[in-house]
Amino acid sequence: MSFRGGPGSLHQKKQRKTTRSVNKHIRFLETGETTALLKSSSSVQKVQSFLEKVQKEVQRNQTDHREGGAAADKPPAVTEGGGSRSTEMKRARREKKEADEEDCSSSDESTLKHEQPGFTVGFSTTAAERDEEDEEEEAVPPGRQLLNLQIPDFLQSDAPKDPKEKGKKPKRRSKRRKRQQIPAEVEADSELAKYWAQRYRLFSRFDEGIRLDREGWFSVTPEKIAEHIALRVKHSFPTSELVIDAFCGVGGNTIQFALTGKRVLAVDIDAVKLDLARHNAEVYGVAQRIDFLQGDFLQLAPRLRGDVVFLSPPWGGPNYLTAEVFDIRTMMEPDGYPIFSRAKQISENIVYFLPRNANMDQVVSLAGSGGLVEVEQNFLNNKLKTVTAYFGNLIQLDGAGPG
């Protein structure tokens, strides 16, 4: 135990002073790799000592080479006359050139330039360029020019070469899609304007040729929700092979069921919608997994067989949102109860896609006395959009979703 102001506290202060922190700055390159900034450390000193050894070895080789060829290169003796002076000048120039080469300590492989407090590594020029520089040095003897060192890329500064570009930020590639011109039929209808703005929520591959009629704009299931329902059916009832889409419309749900590997029977009473659904399925590359059947589901149901029945009958247009509670008996055409009864003749495994304000008491009553139903709320961008009721083997009692 030590008291404030006592020797113990002084000892603690000394310990605090000796504590240091080392900052390691990381630079992120355009290639996605990271590299630490070079600092004066033991690793750097090892590099410097290695380069110095290389330089000494190069100098030793050059000295041996010059001594070996001294006898051959030694100029012949001249008598006192007019040629002696020129010979001495040539010899002085040669000695000066050799002294310059020793000072530069240049090699054919690399050149080291040491500056305090840091260091820069560069690579020498080629032999042909070096000969041209030697000739320039002989022409201009008073000064000695340093070699223009090339700095490696990993030691280059990130600062732009042009001072005008210092304040400029690199341009980011825009991920926005090209703005499409609004079709004339959509532009003329004010109610479809908001659906056009949300077209990629309906079909992510809209720009690849998706087609919709007027009713299809506000009746097709948003793609994310349709995908979730299809995956839910796949995981809840993996042995199912054929899904019947009783009211396929322009094919939003039909396409997603086919994308999970299921065989789909797409039924609709409207031939135009059936053609649109076939075309849109071709855009997604799943038309070969779908059979299209035109007719009234209520009349066709007794003759149909399948593992799962998906029900998404017309809700009467966008006006369904004006009601506080959506009555599936009176506000749906045809009546929602007979539709469900016909579907049960085909299979007990039924998916009923309904408005978000659907009457829950009516939905629960469809299961019958003692029956089970699972109601799922579908949110998109934190907004409740629709509800989905699952019957039969599609009910998940453990609450596990499709992932």
TrEMBL record:
The keyword Methyltransferase applies. Residues 55-68, 87-99 have a biased composition (Basic and acidic residues). One of its GO terms (molecular function) is RNA cap trimethylguanosine synthase activity. Gene3D superfamilies: Vaccinia Virus protein VP39. Transmembrane segments: none annotated. Residues 11-26, 166-180 have a biased composition (Basic residues). InterPro entries: RNA_cap_Gua-N2-MeTrfase, SAM-dependent_MTases_sf. Residues 1-26, 55-185 are annotated as: Disordered. The keyword Cytoplasm applies. Residues 130-139 have a biased composition (Acidic residues). It holds the Pfam family Methyltransf_15. Its main location: cytoplasm. Keywords: Cytoplasm, Methyltransferase, Nucleus, Phosphoprotein, S-adenosyl-L-methionine, Transcription, Transcription regulation, Transferase. Signal peptide: none annotated. Catalyzes the 2 serial methylation steps for the conversion of the 7-monomethylguanosine (m(7)G) caps of snRNAs and snoRNAs to a 2,2,7-trimethylguanosine (m(2,2,7)G) cap structure. The enzyme is specific for guanine, and N7 methylation must precede N2 methylation. Hypermethylation of the m7G cap of U snRNAs leads to their concentration in nuclear foci, their colocalization with coilin and the formation of canonical Cajal bodies (CBs). Plays a role in transcriptional regulation. May form homooligomers. Interacts with CREBBP/CBP, EED/WAIT1, EP300/P300, NCOA6/PRIP, PPARBP/PBP and SMN. Belongs to the methyltransferase superfamily. Trimethylguanosine synthase family. This is Trimethylguanosine synthase. It comes from Oryzias javanicus (Javanese ricefish). The lineage of its organism: Eukaryota, Metazoa, Chordata, Craniata, Vertebrata.
